[in-house]
Amino acid sequence: MAAETIFSKIIRKEIPAEILYQDELVTAFRDIHPKAPTHVLIVPNVLIPTTNEVEAEHELALGRLFTVARKLAAEAGIAEDGYRLIVNCNSHGGQEVYHIHMHLLGGRPLGPMLAR
Ligand code: AMP
């Protein structure tokens, strides 16, 4: 079994976070070190460490990440100008927390996708 991260504690509300949305499949909360005016993390409630562990049974929860991203982007007023959704995997991807999460970033021009 994969080791729990701080995100499991946030999902269970055992530690504080600014939760913007929660349902039976996913939880969305503000990133503690925002990289843009809007920086929200959307995570499945079930622990999936990385995209390498994604299975067909996760499709409903992982699809929900997108519908919640759409809703939160609209609520933040960034849908029209646009935003970026990012999922990092393992060390080369820059993943720090081993509980799959989608970053929703926006509120300013975000520049090129990758720094060189
Ligand atoms: P990643 O590099 O894709 O694994 O992103 C992990 C993100 O989690 C980083 O942007 C961190 O700032 C964020 N983060 C870590 N701990 C917390 C926390 N307790 N509450 C909110 N965001 C967090």
Notes on the protein architecture:
The protein has helices at 6-11, 59-76, 90-93; strands at 19-22, 26-30, 38-44, 83-86, 102-106. It has one domain: HIT-like (HIT family, subunit A, 2-Layer Sandwich). The N and C termini lie far apart (36 Å). The chain has 116 residues and is of the alpha+beta class. β1 (19-22) and β2 (26-30) form a beta hairpin. The longest helix has 18 residues, at 59-76. The structure holds adenosine monophosphate. Adenosine monophosphate (AMP) binds next to loops.
Topology:
Elements: H1 6-11, E1 19-22, E2 26-30, E3 38-44, H2 59-76, E4 83-86, H3 90-93, E5 102-106
Antiparallel strand pairs: 1-2, 2-3, 3-5, 4-5
Motif (Histidine triad motif): 99-103
Keywords: Hydrolase
EC number: 3.9.1.-
Q: Briefly, what is this?
A:
The protein is of the alpha+beta class and 116 residues long.
Features:
single chain, alpha+beta, 5-stranded antiparallel β-sheet, Histidine_triad_CS, HIT-like, hydrolase, Histidine_triad_HIT
Cross-sheet strand order for the largest sheet: 1-2-3-5-4
* CATH class label: Alpha Beta
CATH architecture: 2-Layer Sandwich
Bound molecules: adenosine monophosphate
Please identify the structural class as seen in this structure: alpha+beta
* Helix/strand order, N-terminal first: HEEEHEHE
Any idea what the CATH superfamily is called?
A: HIT-like
Task: Give helix % range.
Answer: 10-25%
Give the CA-CA distance, first to last residue: 36 Å
Number of helical segments? 3
- Domain module count: 1
Low-confidence stretches: none
Overall average pLDDT = 97
Could you please say which CATH topology applies here?
HIT family, subunit A
| Beta-strand content bin | 15-25%
Number of strands: 5
Globular, elongated, flat, extended or rod-shaped: what is the shape?
Answer: globular
Q: How would you sum up the major sheet?
A: 5 strands, antiparallel
InterPro entries: Histidine_triad_CS, Histidine_triad_HIT, HIT-like, HIT-like_sf
Organism: Zobellella iuensis
Enzyme class: hydrolase
GO molecular function: hydrolase activity
